[in-house]
Design a protein that fits this description.
The structure is a homodimer. By secondary structure, chain A is an alpha/beta fold. The first copy, chain A, has three domains: 66 residues, Up-down Bundle (dopa decarboxylase, N-terminal domain); 252 residues, Type I PLP-dependent aspartate aminotransferase-like (Major domain) (Aspartate Aminotransferase, domain 2, 3-Layer(aba) Sandwich), CATH 3.40.640; 112 residues, Aspartate Aminotransferase, domain 1 (Alpha-Beta Complex). In chain A, the strands form two sheets. A seven-stranded mixed beta sheet of chain A has the order 1-7-6-5-4-2-3, sandwiched between helices. Chain A has a four-stranded antiparallel beta sheet with strand order 8-9-11-10. In chain A, β4, α10 and β5 form a beta-alpha-beta unit. In chain A, α4 runs antiparallel to α14 and α14 crosses α16. At the A-B interface, α1, α2, α3, α4 and α5 of A face α1, α2, α3, α4 and α5 of B. Chains A, B: This is Aspartate aminotransferase family protein. Chains A, B: GO terms for molecular function: aromatic-L-amino-acid decarboxylase activity; pyridoxal phosphate binding; transaminase activity.
Chain lengths: 472, 472
């Protein structure tokens, strides 16, 4: 494809995306097709000779988009949001066009340096502790996801626990990882990958009301393990759990980790974005105890997947844990020690220029624009929670400190399951569920960029109507 | 950003990329700035209020691109190529615009199904063994990189070796991983991550001429380990090693793995793409013994990073090794068992719609277009090798079965190091190096889409001229 062919086809794709966003509200949020429907519509193989882009775009409309769950739909309230935005798409386009491989500083100096600078920008913007800035021994990096950040934290933690022997001799299965019963599934997955198994994970009980980790229970578990001759290696605390956005008490958890030399990773995958607003930084109290911290701009900060921002207080320890240096990657800049090679901060070797999309987003929206986006979500969630609170058939499940509202019909699970299925079948909105203290609970997470109060009110209307038979 | 604002800014970014590609040849391939130059040019923080895209594009030109190594430059011959192309950029734009999160089938049915179908297309196109098709117990998935594919293969291998107990109790440090002394550094990194440590990796000697793994040495190592009471878990064979594109002998390695029940992963990260041409499939002989296989369309098949195509013969075993199912991800489709949830095929939970860029590439170029790209690279490498062969000052180092030529000035290392530094300092071309049997060796890898014989001839001219003083 020549640059001029790209120019013409590129305009068409830009138009396609703009039209898609314009028509999102008219589409069903989720498809109703059974499994296999899209696969059956695709041909058996690629064409022998090339086809024009128009043919591909036509198939995109007829074969692909009808089979999608539309995460950017204003009626998408499932899971957590997975924001994208115009400037994010543009920044990522530039990254795709440059095709730079940023594994080493030397293979893309600007790719590396902009990432370091932007992670410092973000740390400032969110008022993160000084220890995470690149001006000291710490620093930030973009991971693909919070799951990968948790894995990297786990690896550094076992490296530290083994006083450096882990790289050579492998992992000691007596190391233990602690997270709350509400911690993300990636903690167990990371422990499994690192060779600790499910036996290596201790799930710490939570406060029955707030669903936040009990610091007393954590202390008891750590001390019991030490007495039993096993080694506490890592605590993963959560700011904004996936199920209900509970906030673990860092001011109590931090000192326990410090006392016992346990690595503390703080997972704020969803809720971290809120900290761009000064009034929403309460979850970060005590963060100065953390050895590492992450949040996902790709969830709620208008930056497309994949973009997890991950900071460590001691970058030297991280690099020591993960570096492998074969001859074909040796270069003068690396040997000078004056540069960052981000391949040593992550699991994969290769990396794309992801800082660009973050740069476009930060510059287009500015600090105030990002705050407006977050505040809008929080206000819309509060608006929805008010509706729930005012209706005796329903109950709110726990607090809603950010933009997720957990709620349910009072009473048994089954009417709640039917309610969820019924509202999702309308195609107008999409909600998901969780279990809180064993009870089936609906989750409404606000955050898609196009969602306004019209959509939240419509969501309530649909839920309220669908609940009528259940209330009879 | 409204859809109409996106439309206008999108055209400008498309133009920017087209102009960048048009002017690549005029730019120095690598920057000469010292570390910190780009960071020093960036402001201290994001703007308070948003800025227009034009301002960002202007800064891209003045602050960023002068600090890049240009991987798409026609004079880029370093490492392996990291192809991008017009259709790949377009497909990835659509993915960014859709912002679909494909972690579960239910969260993006078309995202999942297209990926399954396209990996079958690729398997057909490359004539991979039937066992990797989704029509049987096997199937394909897109990983971010071959490093991650190696890690996933390592995890499945230890899961198999432990007969299922690994998930619960953790890894047994008596498991062993085998690769050749020329195997990729990601094998050691994966073993470290999995908790086996460097002690868990056996580097098998290679044939001194071909640099391919010695099957006899592999057998001896496996049998010695078994006799010593440790357990061979994984062999990683390489088709096209990073250093010299050596091809390990699968027809001999495969039966050894089968005999001892060892998981065989084949890493064809770079060279796999060549198999789109029937005459370049020699490296895949014996691939029917493999339990898993990967190659990177993002290296040499015109598809931008990240896109590693990874297949397994037994998807059930893979999912069993990696799945974790919290309540908030439960859904009817998953429970039906009729769908693929690709989150269980990889380390992270989240995933973007990466099949789209592959779809745009396969359809725009067609089978014949892709073959033409590969054949062009192979022919240009052969052309360069002919120049080297005809000049008595130089020697070729090993065969060049694909599009990488390894060569050196006869004699000591130091003149070779000076030669490399001198030609790279011209800014016209960029080569990297390796060590072969301890000797400093230059690598010229053809593969950037804009590279033609003019550029290869210029490369030879520059190298030949720069070598003159050394030959005095």
């Amino acid at each position: 494809m020549t640059p001029d062919e790209f120019r013409q086809a590129g305009y068409a794709v830009v138009d396609w995306i703009a039209d898609y966003w314009t028509t999102l509200d008219e589409r069903p949020v989720t498809p109703q097709d059974p499994p296999g429907a899209v696969a059956a519509r695709l041909p058996a193989g690629p064409p022998t000779h090339g086809e024009p882009v128009e043919a591909v775009l036509a198939d995109l409309d007829s074969l692909v988009t009808p089979g999608l769950t539309h995460w950017q739909h204003p009626g998408f309230f499932g899971f957590f949001p997975a924001n994208t935005s115009g400037p994010s798409v543009l920044g990522d386009m530039v990254s795709s066009g440059l095709g730079v491989q940023g594994m080493l500083w030397a293979t893309g100096p600007a790719c590396t340096e902009m990432e370091t600078v932007l992670l410092d920008w973000l740390a400032d913007l969110m008022d993160l502790p000084q220890r995470f800035r690149s001006t000291g021994p710490g620093g930030g990096v973009i991971q693909d996801s919070a799951s990968s950040a948790t894995l990297v934290a786990t690896l550094v933690a076992v490296h530290r626990a083994a006083a450096g022997r882990w790289r050579q001799v492998g992992v000691d299965r007596r190391y233990r990882v602690y997270t709350s019963t509400e911690g993300h599934s990636s903690v167990e997955k990371a422990a499994r990958i690192a060779g600790l198994g499910a036996d290596g994970v201790r799930l710490i009980e939570v406060d029955p009301d707030t669903r936040a980790m009990s610091a007393e229970a954590l202390r008891a578990a750590i001390e019991a393990d030490i007495a039993a001759g096993v080694t506490p290696a890592l605590v993963v605390a959560t700011v904004g759990t996936t199920s209900t956005t509970a906030v673990d008490p860092l001011p109590q958890i931090g000192p326990i980790c410090a006392e016992h030399g346990v690595f503390l990773h703080v997972d704020a995958a969803y809720a971290g974005s809120a900290a761009v607003c000064p009034e929403l930084r309460f979850g970060h109290e005590g963060l100065e105890y953390a050895d590492s911290y992450c949040f996902d701009p790709h969830k709620w900060l208008l930056t497309g997947f994949d973009c997890d921002a991950f900071w460590v207080a001691d970058a030297g320890e991280l690099v020591e844990a993960l570096t492998v240096l074969p001859e074909y990657l040796r270069n003068a800049a690396t040997e000078s020690g004056a540069v960052i090679d981000y391949r040593d901060w992550q699991v994969p070797l290769g990396r794309r220029f992801r800082a660009l999309k973050l740069w476009f987003v930060l510059r287009w929206y500015g600090v105030e624009g990002l705050r407006e986006h977050i505040r809008s979500g929080v206000a819309l969630a509060a608006r929805f929670a008010d509706r729930v609170r005012a209706d005796d058939r329903f109950e709110l499940v726990g607090p809603h400190p950010y933009a997720l509202v957990c709620f349910r019909l009072r009473g048994a699970d089954e009417p709640n399951e039917r309610l969820l299925a019924a509202v999702n079948a309308t195609g107008r909105i999409y909600l998901t569920h969780t279990r809180v203290a064993g009870r089936h609970t609906l989750r409404l997470a606000v955050g898609a960029p196009q969602t306004t109060k019209v959509h939240v009110d419509e969501a309530w209307e649909l839920i309220s109507q669908a609940a009528l038979p259940a209330a009879d």
